[in-house]
């Protein structure tokens, strides 16, 4: 079957999709967006987390056919998503679906966001991926780099999406809030301390910026 | 495999009538795992995501009519007052990402004895509204679970709404697991006080082939509270009543040994949860402020 949906602000079309296929598979194997990681395929690890109509979900548990006409943000589009949110108010990319409707996203904001044609492919930028220098990153991405919250990096995309969504909802989360928000994201390297540091750092920078 | 995408409830019922083997998929948090692992290859997937009414809820005079696909996150955020037991249970489901997708309809459809919402539904009192092209019916929650991963649905029926009685008194819920998140219950227990009818109801999860009520424990406690005039006086529950209640709840369990825990442990834990929840809810009923908080408690 064919699936049409919006990914990081761009209309995408995936062909020859098997009916039992997951959104994760479509993103990685059909659209060439390998940022969302495939680890457990059962919703245990959170490394495939994406925003579906603004709501963080495990893309391995969403059937491809269920995203027809809906809006997906992956880690590849996170920097742009976050930038648009700063410029146009809360939830800049959530205008197309029902999931974020209560947050008052204007259609205009969503359209404007899409018209920019973002999709900042980090790997294609001439920047330093070790320090984030010269690369346009979201607040949470920069904080992960600065806090040393990345080791092997496999869990990082899911953590970034989930942590970004937390800070969107709650600008000054308690440690308990952070732990709970990230309870569905497994990391086997860091012991989580630096990840918590990164989220605290991003929250602090976010509140300074306001 | 065919992917059916009905745009309305009527279309969904028609599709289910035409293809009774179709597997409904809403949040996908159970169905997709089975497909990803090749444990299941349904001929038809029946996507319910386009049906808005399944994501709505309505707070009525006596019951909350909860759409089958209302995500657990919404229950936690919006129905904590009306359905405190179910809100607590929802908070113990998996992780935020899963709670953003999964709902009570899927728990009921799957009918796993370990489903987190079952003990809360049993304790609160609920009816499951199911519908087919032949018409709709309300199945009392006590008659809904018919076996391990089996329920009272006919092949052409879909779960539409769960009618859960609004809390008329304190409710509690606990779940035993190896960590706070992402854990299948070793066992779970829910308790609801119903001061209006001067009754208590219970629910036990993961400690029998189906979710069950601890009926002997309920009957004992109903009688003990009545005889002792506890509802009127609001006096402290005696330790002997609490112990007996816990023992009877433990006796109602009919668990198995498996990788998550032994039958012996489960029986023991059910008794402890029952006793503690009786004390928590009763303290809340008495208004002493000694009850357990309904916030957090994942």
From TrEMBL, chain A:
<dbReference type="Pfam" id="PF00111">
    <property type="entry name" value="Fer2"/>
</dbReference>
<keyword id="KW-0560">Oxidoreductase</keyword>
<keyword id="KW-0479">Metal-binding</keyword>
<dbReference type="GO" id="GO:0043885">
    <property type="term" value="F:anaerobic carbon-monoxide dehydrogenase activity"/>
</dbReference>
<dbReference type="InterPro" id="IPR006058">
    <property type="entry name" value="2Fe2S_fd_BS"/>
</dbReference>
<protein>
    <submittedName>
        <fullName>Carbon-monoxide dehydrogenase small subunit</fullName>
        <ecNumber>1.2.7.4</ecNumber>
    </submittedName>
</protein>
<keyword id="KW-0001">2Fe-2S</keyword>
<dbReference type="InterPro" id="IPR051452">
    <property type="entry name" value="Diverse_Oxidoreductases"/>
</dbReference>
<dbReference type="InterPro" id="IPR036884">
    <property type="entry name" value="2Fe-2S-bd_dom_sf"/>
</dbReference>
<dbReference type="InterPro" id="IPR001041">
    <property type="entry name" value="2Fe-2S_ferredoxin-type"/>
</dbReference>
<dbReference type="InterPro" id="IPR002888">
    <property type="entry name" value="2Fe-2S-bd"/>
</dbReference>
<dbReference type="Pfam" id="PF01799">
    <property type="entry name" value="Fer2_2"/>
</dbReference>
<dbReference type="InterPro" id="IPR012675">
    <property type="entry name" value="Beta-grasp_dom_sf"/>
</dbReference>
<dbReference type="InterPro" id="IPR036010">
    <property type="entry name" value="2Fe-2S_ferredoxin-like_sf"/>
</dbReference>
<feature type="domain" description="2Fe-2S ferredoxin-type">
    <location>
        <begin position="1"/>
        <end position="78"/>
    </location>
</feature>
<keyword id="KW-0408">Iron</keyword>
<keyword id="KW-0411">Iron-sulfur</keyword>
UniProtKB/TrEMBL annotation, chain B:
<dbReference type="InterPro" id="IPR016167">
    <property type="entry name" value="FAD-bd_PCMH_sub1"/>
</dbReference>
<dbReference type="InterPro" id="IPR002346">
    <property type="entry name" value="Mopterin_DH_FAD-bd"/>
</dbReference>
<keyword id="KW-0285">Flavoprotein</keyword>
<keyword id="KW-0560">Oxidoreductase</keyword>
<dbReference type="Pfam" id="PF03450">
    <property type="entry name" value="CO_deh_flav_C"/>
</dbReference>
<dbReference type="InterPro" id="IPR036683">
    <property type="entry name" value="CO_DH_flav_C_dom_sf"/>
</dbReference>
<dbReference type="InterPro" id="IPR016169">
    <property type="entry name" value="FAD-bd_PCMH_sub2"/>
</dbReference>
<dbReference type="InterPro" id="IPR051312">
    <property type="entry name" value="Diverse_Substr_Oxidored"/>
</dbReference>
<dbReference type="InterPro" id="IPR036318">
    <property type="entry name" value="FAD-bd_PCMH-like_sf"/>
</dbReference>
<dbReference type="InterPro" id="IPR016166">
    <property type="entry name" value="FAD-bd_PCMH"/>
</dbReference>
<protein>
    <submittedName>
        <fullName>CO/xanthine dehydrogenase FAD-binding subunit</fullName>
    </submittedName>
</protein>
<dbReference type="Pfam" id="PF00941">
    <property type="entry name" value="FAD_binding_5"/>
</dbReference>
<dbReference type="InterPro" id="IPR005107">
    <property type="entry name" value="CO_DH_flav_C"/>
</dbReference>
<feature type="domain" description="FAD-binding PCMH-type">
    <location>
        <begin position="1"/>
        <end position="169"/>
    </location>
</feature>
<keyword id="KW-0274">FAD</keyword>
């Amino acid at each position: 079957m064919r699936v049409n949906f919006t990914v990081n602000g761009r209309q995408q079309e995936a062909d020859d999709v098997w009916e039992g296929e997951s959104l994760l598979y479509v993103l990685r194997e059909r659209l060439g967006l390998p940022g969302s990681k495939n680890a457990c395929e059962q919703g245990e690890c959170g490394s495939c987390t994406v925003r579906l109509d603004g709501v963080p979900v495990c893309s391995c548990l969403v059937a491809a056919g269920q995203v027809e006409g809906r809006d997906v943000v992956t880690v590849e589009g996170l920097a742009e998503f976050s930038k648009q949110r700063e410029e146009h108010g809360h939830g800049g990319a959530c205008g197309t679906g029902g999931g974020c409707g209560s947050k008052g996203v204007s259609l205009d904001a969503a359209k404007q966001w899409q018209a920019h044609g973002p999709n900042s492919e980090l790997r294609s930028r001439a920047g330093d991926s070790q320090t984030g220098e010269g690369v346009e990153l979201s607040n949470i991405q920069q904080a992960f780099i600065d806090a040393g919250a990345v080791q092997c990096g496999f869990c990082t995309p899911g953590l970034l999406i989930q942590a970004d969504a937390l800070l969107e909802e709650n600008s000054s989360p308690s440690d308990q809030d952070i732990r709970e928000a990230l309870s569905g994201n497994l990391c086997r390297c860091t012991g989580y301390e630096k990840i918590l540091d990164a989220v605290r750092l991003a929250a602090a920078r976010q509140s300074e910026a306001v | 495999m065919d992917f059916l995408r009905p745009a309305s409830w009527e279309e969904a019922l028609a599709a289910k009538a035409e293809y009774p083997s179709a597997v409904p998929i809403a949040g996908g948090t159970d169905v997709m795992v089975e497909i990803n692992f090749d444990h299941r290859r349904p001929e038809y997937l029946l996507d319910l995501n386009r049906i808005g009414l399944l994501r709505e809820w309505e707070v009525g005079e006596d019951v909350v009519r909860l759409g089958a696909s209302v995500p657990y996150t919404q229950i936690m955020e919006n129905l904590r007052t009306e359905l405190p037991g179910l809100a607590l249970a929802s908070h113990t489901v998996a992780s935020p990402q899963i709670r953003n997708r999964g709902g009570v309809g899927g728990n009921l459809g799957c009918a796993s004895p370990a489903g987190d919402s079952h003990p809360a539904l049993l304790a609160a009192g609920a009816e499951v509204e199911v519908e087919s092209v032949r018409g709709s019916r309300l199945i009392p929650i006590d008659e809904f679970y018919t076996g391990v991963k089996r329920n009272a649905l006919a092949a052409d029926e879909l779960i539409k709404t769960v009618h859960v009685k609004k809390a008329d008194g304190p409710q509690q819920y606990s779940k035993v697991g190896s960590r706070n998140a992402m854990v299948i219950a070793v066992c779970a227990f829910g308790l609801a006080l119903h001061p209006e009818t001067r009754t208590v109801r219970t629910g036990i999860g993961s400690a029998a082939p189906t979710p069950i009520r601890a009926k002997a424990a309920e009957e004992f406690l109903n009688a003990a509270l009545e005889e002792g005039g506890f509802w009127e006086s609001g006096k402290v529950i005696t330790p002997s009543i609490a112990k007996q209640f816990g023992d009877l709840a433990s006796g109602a369990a009919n668990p198995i040994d498996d990788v998550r825990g032994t039958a012996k442990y489960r029986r023991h834990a059910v008794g402890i949860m029952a006793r503690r929840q009786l004390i928590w809810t009763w303290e809340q009923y008495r208004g002493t402020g000694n009850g357990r908080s309904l916030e957090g408690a994942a």
